[in-house]
Amino acid sequence: MGKLNSIPLFCSIAIAILLSTPIAHCKIAQGPKAVENWFQKLNHAKPKMTKLHFYFHDIVSGRNPTSIRVAQANSTSHSPTSFGLLAMLDDRLTTGPAINSTTIGRAQGIVGVDSLEEFSLLMSLIFVFTKGKFSGSTLSLLGRNTVLNEYREMPIVGGSGVFRLARGIATAKTHTLSNNGDAVVEYHVVVMHY
Predict the structure, then answer these.
(1) Cα(166)–Cα(160) distance, rounded to whole angstroms?
(2) CA–CA gap between residue 86 and residue 154 (Å, rounded)
(3) Own/partner pairs for 67-70, CB < 8 Å, 24+ apart?
(4) pLDDT tens-digit map of 126-180
(5) Residue 16, Cα to own-chain centre: how many angstroms?
(6) What is the rounded average pLDDT of the residues 87-104?
(7) DSSP line for 35-103
């Protein structure tokens, strides 16, 4: 019975958080009819290529981390690669590598250490753009990040808003990695979209 009483409380908290969170608004109509009309015009549309450059600030230390461990296997602490660790993140995307650079969006999603032999991450991320001409649009990244390599290539598998039906490549390069695990990663993204 105690569990049933906590469900309305949980729902109330979730609704309060959702209502207090700023939402990026896209300038493209997103209702079902608008999307259907967009698809009908797609036969005549030419694909566009867009190049993006930004920095990803992954903060794991301090009082306000943007990346937190949410689960791990019993064997994770004994693994040289931390195999089985899962983390959720809500990292800032900025125009430059400095912590006070202009924020243009967030990288939100889940990452998991996916290899027993090398340190690599399975990344499922949404780049949510909140400022500039792509405000309200998103790009979806799903791929393997071999973080110790200088350059890592990961696929862009979709998007929304301006980036509907996006496909492309994100190239990541670690800009800085501090002793406490905080990282700034430079991203170059090239996408085709309509």
Answers:
(1) 8
(2) 19
(3) 67/91, 67/111, 70/110
(4) 999 999 999 999 999 999 999 999 999 999 999 999 999 999 999 999 999 999 9
(5) 23
(6) 97
(7) HHHHHHHGGGPPPEEEEEEEEEEE--SSSS-SEEEEE--TTGGG-TT-TT-EEEEEEEEESSSSTTSPE
Report the number of secondary-structure helices (H) and strands (E) in the chain: 2, 9
Give dist(CA 63, CA 189) in Å, integer: 31
Residue the block writes with tokens 């027993």: 116
Mapping DSSP to helix (H, G, I), strand (E, B) and coil, where does residue 191 land? strand
The amino acid occupying position 131 is: K
Q: Report in angstroms the alpha-carbon separations of 180 from 59, 95, 136, 146, 183.
A: 9, 23, 33, 19, 9
